[in-house]
Specification:
The protein is elongated, with a radius of gyration of 30 Å. It is an all-alpha fold and about 375 residues long. Helix content is about 65%, strand content about 0%. Helix 8 packs parallel to helix 10, helix 15 runs antiparallel to helix 16 and helix 16 packs across helix 17. About 35% of the residues are buried. The chain starts with 6 loop residues before the first helix and ends with a helix. It has 22 helices and no strands. It folds into 3 domains: about 90 residues; about 80 residues; about 190 residues, no CATH class.
Length: about 375
């Protein structure tokens, strides 16, 4: 460097020293010397020299904390690799960056392999679209329900944010339901605009799609508290409709039906279950009336409960399919002659027919024709 102190030579030297240091091939004394050289080079006037250090040290877990902080505080071309990848930076360091730095550095924090809830909360508070898109699209970011809610409140109509959330491996159930609803509302507007559908027809179509997607969020392994939270949210937003309850029980989800009836009737779950499964003739009609479920649908609910009592679950893969077919065959007798035995390929079609049945006894097809 003394013989040739050009910027290019200093850049090459910086890369070599950093590579040797991060390879841990040096003795203890040599490491101290290398660190001193690196510290001097973090003050080099040439950005390319400092960038060479950052690129070669960004993933080194043994990097001295003061060097990592120095590089992270540099200009973007130097700082971004360290901010995004260095494990040496603490949550306190990252929170300082989020509070004081610009969008590029905040976005780099959002894209780290692991982001804590505390840091995610701070990133959401920035209110910046690019930062939030990077965060929600990062499966390595832990995001609290509170922050997810704030994201939807702020960016609910933003396609980039919604796409990032949809792509996550796991979303809280209540958040996923809100997202389904937001996407469905947008789809309704597109249907009306592009296909000149009447608003009520488009709404009916979207309602079926949304309810199917909402129930698709559930799995047999979900905790009852998660299911209860989802149902409470549906009820709060006037989306706990008779049709989604009927669709749920059609799909074999007795727990969703029980909790929904308990919520609508304002009874504890245990008391609601006792009435629903009462061996007498009065319990089920009484609680369905209390829940204000349409009288025309009550025979269908009763048929479904009867099928649930008759159907033995063996833990096999086809439990839900078998229940669904058997239940649909029974319930459809209250609407029309189902004809020959229900096949798997017809289950979804008939389920849509069933859940299109409104409280006045008309199908959505009839209403659309009218």
């Amino acid at each position: 460097m003394l013989d040739e102190p050009s910027a290019a030579n200093r850049e090459e030297t910086a890369a070599k020293v950093a590579a040797a240091y991060s390879a841990e091939a040096l003795s203890e004394d040599e490491r101290h010397i290398a660190e001193d050289i690196i510290r001097v080079m973090t003050k080099d006037t040439e950005v390319m020299v400092r960038a060479a250090l950052a690129e070669n040290l960004k993933t080194y877990s043994g990097l001295s904390h003061d060097i990592a902080v120095k590089l992270a505080g540099d200009v973007d071309s130097v700082a971004l690799p360290v901010i995004q990848f260095s494990e040496v930076l603490t949550d306190d360091d990252l929170l300082e960056i989020v509070r004081k730095e610009g969008t590029a550095k905040q976005t780099a924090v959002a894209g780290r392999p692991h982001v804590s809830e505390q840091v995610s909360d701070a990133l959401v508070e920035t209110g910046k679209e690019d930062v939030v898109v990077a965060l929600v699209g990062n499966d390595g970011a832990s995001i609290s329900d509170k922050s997810f809610t704030k994201v939807l409140d702020t960016f609910g109509e933003n396609e980039r944010v919604n796409a990032g959330m949809v792509g996550r491996t796991k979303l809280p159930m209540a958040i996923a339901e809100r997202l389904v609803n937001l996407v469905s509302e947008k789809l309704r507007d597109e249907l009306v605009a592009q296909h000149e559908l009447p608003n009520d027809v488009a709404t009916d179509l979207i309602l079926q799609s949304r309810e199917r997607a909402t129930l698709g969020l559930l799995s047999p392994n979900d905790a009852i508290m998660d299911v209860h939270a989802l149902i409470a949210q549906l009820h709060k937003n006037d989306r706990l409709t008779p049709s989604i309850i009927l669709r749920a029980i059609c799909m074999g989800d007795i727990e969703f039906f029980e909790i929904s009836v308990a919520v609508l009737s304002r009874l504890p779950l245990g008391a609601a279950r006792s009435l629903i499964h009462d061996e007498g003739a009065l319990g089920l009609p009484a609680i369905l009336d209390r829940a204000r479920l349409p009288e025309e649908m009550q025979p269908m609910f009763k048929a479904a409960i009867d099928v649930a009592k008759e159907t033995e679950y063996d833990g096999g893969d086809n439990d839900r399919d078998r229940f669904q077919r058997k239940m649909l065959e029974r319930v459809l007798t209250y609407m029309e002659d189902p004809g020959e035995e229900l096949g798997e390929e017809n289950a979804e079609y008939l389920l849509d027919r069933l859940c299109g049945f409104n409280v006045a006894g008309k199908s959505q097809e009839t209403r659309a024709e009218t």
